[in-house]
Specification:
Number of strands: 10
Strand order of the largest sheet: 7-6-8-5-9
Number of domains: 2
Largest sheet: 5 strands, mixed
Helix content: 40-55%
Strand content: 5-15%
Radius of gyration: 19 Å
CATH architecture of the largest domain: 3-Layer(aba) Sandwich
CATH class of the largest domain: Alpha Beta
Length: 299
C-alpha cells in the first residue's frame, strides 16, 4: 500500500512539473516527441522521430519515458511535447471516460472527434496493430490445468497471486472492471509492479498471473500463455500518434510524413521489435532504423 501511495505521489509531482509554464521557445524549428515508460511506446516514439528526421528538415527532440497515459496527456496539453504514441482504447476509456465498446473504426472515429473538439489534439493514422491487454499465465500452467480463457480462470484465481502495473490498477478499463466482468478473486491483493518486471516475475513464480500486452516480445520467449478475453471486456487498442493540431498548422509536412506509417506494423512485427530490445538487448534506435529500411520508408 505504501508503494502504491508513493507511485501516486510521484505521478502527481511529474504532472505538476509538466504543467509548469515552459521557458523554452515555441516549437517553430523542431518537433518534440514523447513516449510512455515501456519498450513499445519508446520504440514507436523513435519510429516517428526517425521518420520525421528522414523526410523533413525539422529537428526532433526526444522526451521519452514520461511515465504513463496521464502524464503524456498533460504534457501534450501543456505544449511540452508535440506528439506521442497512444492507443485508441486507452484514449477512449482512460482519458475520455467513455464506455469501452465499438469496433476499431468506430473507436478511432470517436476518439479523433472528441480529441479535436475538446483538446485541440488529433490522431494520426493507425499504425496497423492492436495492442490489447493480455492476461498472462505460465505456459506450463495453461497446459497442466487445461485453461485457455479468462472465464475458465475464474475458478483457479483464488489460488493465484496477481501482478499488475500501477496504471492498470487505476484505469477504468483495468483491474476493477475486469474483476467485476469475470468475478475474479485472487489469493491476495494484486501486487503493483513496474511494467518491465511483470513477465520475469511471472516466469520466476513470484506471481501467477499478470496484465501484459499482446505484442510483448517476451510472451513466446518465456513460454507465457495469453488467456482469451472470451467476454470481450477490452476494447480495440490500435496504436496511433496523438498530435497537437497547432503543431500540424505550424508544420503541415508532418502529417504527410506520419501518414506513410499507416498500417505498416502487424501484431507479429511489433512483437518481434519488442523482443529485439527486451529479449536480445539491442539498441532501440538500431532496431527502428532497420525496420524502416526494410519497409522502404527511409534510405
Amino acid at each position: 500500500m505504501r508503494a502504491l501511495r508513493s507511485s501516486a505521489c510521484v505521478l502527481l509531482l511529474l504532472a505538476a512539473a509538466l504543467l509548469l509554464p515552459s521557458c523554452s521557445p515555441s516549437h517553430t524549428d523542431r518537433i518534440v516527441i514523447g513516449s510512455k515508460n515501456f519498450t513499445e511506446s519508446f520504440l514507436l516514439g523513435e519510429l516517428m522521430a526517425q521518420q520525421i528526421e528522414a523526410h523533413t528538415h525539422l529537428k526532433v527532440e526526444r522526451r521519452f519515458y514520461l511515465a504513463g497515459t496521464y502524464i503524456c496527456q498533460q504534457a501534450i496539453l501543456a505544449g511540452r511535447i508535440d506528439l506521442y504514441p497512444e492507443y485508441t482504447g486507452t484514449a477512449l476509456t482512460a482519458i475520455l471516460k467513455q464506455k469501452a465498446d465499438g469496433d476499431k473504426t468506430e473507436v478511432y472515429a470517436r476518439v479523433k472527434g472528441e480529441y479535436e473538439h475538446r483538446f485541440g489534439l488529433t490522431l494520426g493514422p493507425a499504425l496497423g496493430f492492436n495492442d490489447t491487454f493480455a492476461m498472462e499465465i505460465r505456459g506450463e500452467d495453461a497446459r497442466r490445468l487445461n485453461v485457455r480463457t479468462l472465464s475458465q480462470a475464474t475458478a483457479l484465481a483464488p489460488q493465484w497471486r496477481a501482478g499488475f502495473g500501477y496504471e492498470f490498477m487505476e484505469r477504468p478499463d483495468g483491474y476493477r472492471g475486469l474483476a467485476a466482468t469475470y468475478s475474479l478473486r485472487f489469493a491476495e491483493a494484486p501486487r503493483v509492479m513496474d511494467l518491465g518486471l511483470l513477465a520475469r516475475a511471472l516466469k520466476d513464480h513470484q506471481i501467477d498471473i499478470a496484465a501484459g500486452n499482446t505484442t510483448d516480445g517476451l510472451i513466446p520467449a518465456l513460454d507465457l500463455f495469453v488467456l482469451e478475453d472470451d467476454r470481450h471486456y477490452f476494447p480495440p487498442y490500435e496504436a496511433v500518434p496523438v498530435i497537437r493540431m497547432q503543431t500540424l498548422q505550424q508544420h503541415p509536412e508532418v502529417a504527410g510524413v506520419l501518414a506513410a506509417l499507416a498500417e505498416t506494423i502487424s501484431d507479429e512485427q511489433m512483437r518481434r521489435l519488442n523482443y529485439a530490445v527486451d529479449g536480445e538487448h539491442r539498441d532501440a534506435k538500431d532496431v527502428v532504423r532497420e525496420f524502416l529500411k526494410k519497409q522502404g520508408l527511409i534510405q
